[in-house]
Structures are given as structure tokens and as C-alpha cells.
Amino acid sequence: MTVDGSLGMLPDARNGDGQGGDVRGNGVRSDDVPGHGIPPPEALDAGAPADPGDGAAVTVSALSLDFPIYHGGSRSLKKTVLSLASNRMGRSRDTDAGTGGHLGTDRTHRVVVRALREVSFTLRSGERLGLVGHNGAGKSTLLRALGGIYEPVAGSVEVLGSVGTLLDPNFGMNLDLTGRENIVLRGRYAGLNGTGIRALEADVEAFASLGPFLDLPVRTYSSGMVVRLGFALSTAAAPQVLLMDEWFMAGDAKFQDKAHRRLETVVRGAEILVLTSHTLEILRSWCTRLIWLEHGAIRMDGTPDEVLAAYAGV
Ligand SMILES: Nc1ncnc2c1ncn2[C@@H]1O[C@H](COP(=O)(O)OP(=O)(O)OP(=O)(O)O)[C@@H](O)[C@H]1O
After folding, report:
1. Which domain holds residue 57?
2. What's the CA gap between 283 and 288, in Å, rounded?
């Protein structure tokens, strides 16, 4: 079972529980979340927060990841794939369109999108990595593989340290529960005691500014309101390794401003950041290193100045 080690976080991978499996973005499986009967915070005072340990590092070795296409039996798709590649995965002629991963077939002749192809890199404490590349280049897939959400078909991912994810505002959220109940649940999954959960509730309530909606089911929220709640929950504590998709830029202008300030604190607290964005100013100002992905493979790995000059000519 993969239970998050701290708020919005996956467990420390050194416990052997941070990789693979059906982990949702915040270490909470949506099907694990009970619908009712959540004990109040004061009933939980015996618990203690997990110790995230120290010395974060990320090692990715020859990572490949495929998505099977289940209606790939259609003749036109098969014909396209067969005519595109002649026909060994990972050894394409110039078979790729301008967007998307590499289309091919696996050993059982099933059509797959090879979203990542033999990706290798290491990250040490202090590094802030930005991922750039065309639509469908594999940026989000790589983030999710680092978060243990997707399993590699080949190669490996090793993450040392607690992992925090800002990948999808809905991850780990039970839409039938109220915002407040979701906060308590998240606190419980993080191993917080009653005092910790009350502090979390106060922090998220103040930050998300949902007013009376906090006591209504999340399914009644607008998408911006879900972002507010999800963001507030996922940024309530700084993980050692923070994985961030660009959805955090969603929300109205006032919220974006607030979100940016809070994120800066989290990013300062995190030892390693991995961020995807199409916004060049964000990549330049937040990252110390960029990896340019093209059709699932690393095209370039360097400083933001080097990579942006080659990628975007800026
Ligand atoms: N769940 C899925 N099922 C099938 N294919 C998928 C799935 N998720 C991603 N893909 C495919 O994997 C490839 C990489 O997608 P990914 O979302 O990682 O790209 P990205 O670089 O994040 O793109 P964008 O900048 O458009 O968000 C794409 O070709 C996409 O079609």
C-alpha cells in the first residue's frame, strides 16, 4: 500500500514504497477513500507525522514507458503504424509527427505510444529541473513516472526523499465529501495527529478562501474552486522532491498571485524541483537546468540559457 509520508506527498522511496503501483498524485488512492465516518481531528491525537528523512536524489536510468492503445486493432491505425515504422520500437526512421510520442508496436504486435524512450539523468539536492518539449513529448508522463504513478516498461526510477506532487488538482480528492472532510482525510493519510489536522484545516481554509463552500461536497465546486482546494492541500508542507505540472497557473488572477507566493516558499523548502511548463519566463526564473524532450527521448540537457536558445531561439 502506498500511503503518503507527508501532506500531498508520496512516501520516502527508501521505505520501498515510493515506486510503482497504482498511486494517485498525492499518495491517496481514490478508491481507498471512505465515503463517510471520518473521525474528528481530536480522535487522532495519538498519531505522529512521518519523518521524511534527508538527502534527496533522483536517478532515472534508461527509462522507457509505453501506453497501449486499446482500440489499436482498427485497420487504419495499424496500417498507419506499420507504414510509419519499419518496425522496431526505439529504432525509428523519421517516423514521428510534430506532436505526440513515438507510435509503434510492442512484442505482441499491440499498438502502443512509446511516451518515454531510454531517458536517463540524475538530480542532486539543490537542482531545479524544467522539462520542455512539444505537445506530447513526454513531459507529464516523466513527472508521473517520477511520482510512482506510472510504472516503467524498461529501465528504472529511484527517488530518495519525500515526494510532493502538484500534478492534478483532483488527485486524492473524494468529490462526494466536503472540502473540509477532504482536508481531514488528507491529514489522516499524512499521519497527522488531531492538532496537526486542525492546523492543516486552518491553513487550507485561510488559503483556499472558499468560505461556506468548504462545507459543501467538492463535486459542487467550479474547476477553479477545486484548484484552490487542491493547491492549498498540496502545498501545505514542503516535500524534499517537488513534482509540478503547469496546472498550478490556473485560477483567477488574485489566486494566481497568492499561489505564486505560496509556491515560492514550497519550492525554496524543497531540495529538488521538477517542473513542466510552456512558459519560458517560468522556466528561466525557476530552473537551474532544463531537459528538452522530443518524442519521448532527451534531445538536450543543459542550463536554461543553453537549452532555451536551442529550443526556442531565445
Ligand atoms: N493515458 C494515456 N493513454 C495513452 N496515451 C497517452 C496517455 N497519456 C499520455 N499519452 C501519450 O503519451 C505521449 C506523451 O504525453 P504527455 O502527456 O507526457 O506529453 P506532454 O509532453 O506532457 O504534452 P503537453 O505539453 O501537450 O502536455 C503522447 O503521445 C500522448 O498521446
Report:
1. 9-61+123-312
2. 9
